[in-house]
Amino acid sequence: MKLTPANLPAIAARVPVPRYDRSRLRPGIVHIGVGGFHRAHQAMYLDALFNESGESPFGIIGVGVRPEDEPMRDALREQSTLYTLVEKGADGPPRPRVIGSVIDYRFAPDAPEAVLSALTDPAVRIVSLTITEGGYHVNQTTGAFEADAAVLAEARDGARPTSAFGFLTEALARRRAAGTAPFTVMSCDNVPQNGRIARRTLSAFARLRDERLGEWIDREVGFPNSMVDRITPVTSGLDRRRLLDEFGVEDSWPVVCEPFSQWVVEDRFPAGRPALERVGVRFVDDVEPYESMKLRLLNAGHQALCHLGYLAGYRFAHEVCRDPSFVRFLSAYMEEEATPTLEPVPGVDLPAYRRQLIERFSNPEISDTLARLCTDASDHIPKFLLPVVRDRLAAGKDVRRSALVVAGWARYAQGVDEQGRRIDVVDRRRGDLAARAARQLTDPLAFLDDETLFGDLRSRPAFVEPFTRALDSLHSIGARATVEKWESRT
What we know:
- By secondary structure, the chain is an alpha/beta fold.
- 47% of the residues lie in helices and 10% in strands.
- The chain has a five-stranded parallel sheet, sandwiched between helices. Strands 4-3-9 form a three-stranded mixed sheet, with helices on both faces. The chain has a three-stranded mixed sheet with strand order 8-10-11, with helices on one face.
- A hairpin with a 7-residue loop joins strand 3 (83-87) and strand 4 (95-99).
């Protein structure tokens, strides 16, 4: 049965569907960057809130600003923005439910004014973002805003907006001119201090156009930091077929995810917010302890597995987590290198959290590919892993496991695995990475040459020594044997 509003009563006999009247939802949130994660996380939480309370002023209008968002436009419009979320645990059958919190979708390349109309609607009180780490135009090492030629062209007064920050700037300029209160900008990306970075980028972008607009944004707009967590792999054709075969629901783009979900947000919403604490969202004064925990344990843990695991011949995260050598290595990284760099995290048992991460990574139902986890490592490793390295070096502590992770990335960036098969390295810096990875065969430190990624690590003997030793071992005996040897050292 095709997923449409008319078919919801029949689908409800097989799969939970929204219990609220979608026709009564009113737009209150615009989300830029609708993908799998947003639909498995923020939209899911709002759907749960609407189911519980019938609260209606915070329906979501989804926005795509990139040409690559066109398939999402088509999938959502075909189903009146309904979609199926399928939770897949390791110990039971899949649990699908239909999500109805997204009430509209607007595609900027087709209709930029329709996007601006949504963003300038006084009823819209929050604009949320999942635009990936690379969408913030910041230096990976310093965090400073970097305006390339495209940003400078878009920031000219009168230029047509094309990016997330271009649309935000134009919308806030129009709201200011009309005397309309600004919306809150809520980043849901895996960026340290994502609200602070969003503020820095947006106010700097606006200042390129109008200094006073940038000052107004800095003064009037809320930018709460947030920590988001849910493993959401890419939807496969098998996922679609299984939903149809087992539950009779035909959905052109369902979302699959793990059962676990977490969202911690600083309570800074000058224009108001939905009562998401009623459905498990934690609102706090300072999100940094939770954020650091997640970035340095979960996200850096994924980086510890993905490149080395791929080189060893594995293709899925759960396969790597069946290998005792890799589990020992990951556990030791989390316990002995990452955790000592963390501040206390209120309400969290860190040893239990680490054990839970291993269980989550081991879930075979998710089938999270190592290729997905390896994507855009130049955005991920500087934010997730290298802060651990720098804190450990500052304390005079050992970083050999972190150094092995970076060496695994350097070996992976050569573009050929241990069996001589080509690796499709997906990264916006792919060319530079490949060139430096090729030079490391004669210059073992060539991969560390880019200071925008690595800062001064090339000149830090306490990092260079284990890095070069790890890289040599990866070339000589391979990834699995190196990981096993690394944890056999006393």
